[in-house]
Specification:
Elements: H1 6-9, H2 14-21, E1 34-35, E2 52-55, H3 66-71, E3 76-79, H4 83-88, E4 99-101, H5 112-116, H6 123-140, H7 142-153, E5 159-162, H8 169-180, H9 185-193, H10 195-198, H11 201-206, H12 227-234, H13 238-252, H14 255-263, H15 267-277
Parallel strand pairs: 2-5, 3-4, 3-5
Antiparallel strand pairs: 1-2
Helix pairs in contact: 6-12, 6-13, 7-15, 8-9, 13-14
Length: about 280
């Protein structure tokens, strides 16, 4: 049975929607660009605004976007994508001094195309593929998350965290970061589900030639999928993120152990991250 995304089950009230939209930075060439500040965190503190931005591909900004981008004062860009994605859609940022973080691919790299290849081309098949992707991502993303935490701990913020759509890999990275800051699970899900309000991926792809958000290639064009498959692929679904958290608990011994063994960050690094990102 295919579960509907949580945003279709629990309707946001107008106040919640207005607050969520204030996080979204409207760039002409941006994709799902948001500030993760303002969330209540540990010890009565709050996540600082203007320090960590989450987004999708950074290849299509327009000249009109550049002044606002420069005013963010970004010092580092954490690119969670694969090598082929980086080559196909290279980052274009108006400040060439910004530090760029990226990582080598692994032989066991999980992709949605890989999981979907063995399943029916239906909404249910895509839903199952997304669940498997989210179960696999926490282990694969360990080195990337370690780089993200170490970058922040070194004082290299504000920074941008992104993948292709800013939903799946970025969604897990930000969920892990917010959990480490003591943000509660419901708030983390709220931030993740905001993609459903902030991102119109089909429009983004359709209006930009050769834009795939890292999810398609010439042999598997994204927009040729049946609509029921695209709906499951494009949605931020609470079930997906919950699958990642469940895998962290079952395979990695819980969140604290996941940070220490899979992500491999120590208490000092974690303390520094909290120092820079909490107020």
């Amino acid at each position: 049975m295919v579960h509907s995304p949580l945003y279709e089950i629990l309707a946001m009230n107008a106040e919640t929607i207005d607050a969520a939209r204030s996080r979204v930075l409207p760039f002409e060439g941006g994709c799902n660009f948001r500030d993760i500040g303002g969330y209540p965190a540990m010890d009565g503190r709050t996540v600082r605004w203007g320090q960590v931005y989450r987004t999708g591909v950074l290849s299509y900004f327009t000249p009109d976007d550049e002044t606002t981008l420069l005013n963010l004062g970004v010092r580092a860009i954490c690119d969670l994508r694969r090598l082929d994605e980086r080559e196909r859609e290279p980052t274009r940022w108006p400040d060439e001094t910004v530090q760029s973080l990226c990582w080598a691919d692994s032989a066991t790299m999980p992709t949605i195309r890989g999981f979907a290849a063995s399943r029916p081309r239906t909404g249910a098949g895509m839903y199952d593929s997304m669940i498997e992707l989210y179960r696999a991502l926490p282990a694969w993303m360990g080195p990337r998350l370690r780089g993200l935490f170490e970058c922040i701990a070194a004082g290299n913020a504000p920074l941008v965290v992104h993948c292709a759509a800013g939903k799946d890999r970025t969604g897990i990275a930000i969920a892990v970061l917010l959990t480490a800051l003591g943000v509660d699970r419901d708030t983390i899900l709220e931030d993740y589900l905001l993609t459903n309000d902030a991102g119109n991926f089909e429009k983004f792809i359709a209006t930009r030639k050769d834009t795939h958000l890292g999810l398609a290639d010439a042999h598997h064009p994204l927009l040729s999928m049946p609509e029921e498959m695209r709906r499951m692929l494009f949605a931020a679904n609470a079930d997906y993120l919950q699958a990642a958290f469940e895998r962290i608990d079952s395979e990695h011994g819980g969140f604290a152990r996941y940070l220490s063994t899979s992500v491999q960050i120590d208490a000092r690094t974690l303390d520094q991250v909290r120092k820079y990102l909490l107020t």
